[in-house]
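Q: Okay, next protein. This is Stage II sporulation protein M from Heliorestis convoluta. I've checked the sequence twice, so it should be correct. Can you predict the 3D structure?
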Amino acid sequence: MLRTIKVLMYHFNLHWSFYLAIVVVISAGIAIGAIGARALPPEQLEILSTRISDAFYIVQSGLDYHSLAYVAITRNLTVIGLILFLGLTVLGLPFIVALLFFRGFVLGFTASFLMLTREDGIFIVLLSLVPSSLLFIPALAITGAIALAFSLWLIKGRQDSSISLGKALMLYMTVGGATLLIAIIAALLDAYVSPLFLRWFVL
């Protein structure tokens, strides 16, 4: 366990620039998503606001939490799994960046839209988006960083590397497995906890 922590710390110190780049990409996605929501024409805001109201009515009436959990887990695992897969290829770099940016965009758009169209929007964001995002966004950032680092490692070649391909893959899959687990926990929060918070405190 201690050895694993040391290896992870060494990885972070060696590749801190990747983590910084990932944070910048996700933050840019969030910012542009927020701007995009505010740039929507009134008629589209009206349509989306009606759909959101319908969704909140369903939350009030009662949800199939198991189905919601299945959808949330599938969504999160698909995103994390796709990034991990792209990290194993030498052509995955631009797609990894695009996927991270898109996830940030969705989060920024959703949060901005809720705060723009509802008086209680800030509370809805805090209760429905923040709990799962506190887990999923770091998991997304870690996955993106290790995927970028591994993909670049493959591109540059491994002749001068002090670590074998097998050991590198083992570390990659271990960290990837941990982020997949975090993604599942975030999805469970999304499915079971956030709707309850909304029913208790907002709706």
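A: Here is a summary of the prediction. Helices lie at 2-14, 16-38, 42-61, 65-87, 93-117, 121-156, 165-201. Residues 2-201 form one domain.
Q: Noted. On to the next one.
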